[in-house]
Amino acid sequence: MKIIDAHIHTNFEIADSKAFAKKYNIDFSWKGLQNQLNKNNVIAAITISSSEKSQTPGESKELCQQALKEKRLLPVCSVHPNYVSKKYLNATKKLFDEHLIYGIKIFAGYHPVYPSNKKYFPFYKLAAKYDVPVVIHTGDTFGSQYLIKYAHPLDVDEIAVRFPKTKFIIAHSGNPWVRDTAEVVYKNENVYADVSAFCIGHFNKVSKNTLHDIRFALEYSHKPDRFLYGSDWPLVLMNQYIKLIKLAIPEKHHKKVFFENANRIFKLGLN
Ligand SMILES: [Zn+2]
Q1: pLDDT value at position 133?
Q2: 29 alpha carbon to ligand 1 midpoint, in Å?
Q3: Domain range spanning residue 231?
């Protein structure tokens, strides 16, 4: 089965990611990435800014350069709440005009700013204009110094209503607030969720709750068209994570979740 991974990270300079990958013996390198994509038939991967510190549009230089070298990589750049003036909005717009990026990302929780903060509004309008999604970090954060109240998926309801023409992706399905995510997806036609990072590192045994939560979200919302497979590599090995999500998602929805939904939402036009 051909796969689109809707959530990976390829900034090989980020110290936290490097340390994590090393601890779990995951080859976090250009070569390691190629191996993972090849072995698992991942024909496209959305590569998302990794550092909440980078200015808007976050890591655009690195990610766009990588995408020139490797056609399977599709960059999504972040918006930093301290860099939202016209200058930064225009820099982001330019990347859309040049078809270099496929969406934008908000680091809710990593920044103590709610997604519904009006600072972000011009960027949501921009995303609607170019018909590209806004990926919002939700749920647990990688590090205890952050404030997770800003990363609760319920806040996405507010922007989904205010910006009905903008597509929002709840990253990590708000884990552990997966029920809340299911409701926000069910209620709002313009809200999607990725199922990345429910487990990280190496896992032999997976908690039954993990599988149950993902399945619940799909069944409660009745929206198999709105869930996207994503791994959050290098936090997991792709093959292990694909296996896990295949267990969580009923087989009849695999094609949608692993390929068709991302292909449609990011307008990739892949076969
Ligand atoms: Zn991530």
Answers
A1: 98
A2: 16
A3: 3-265
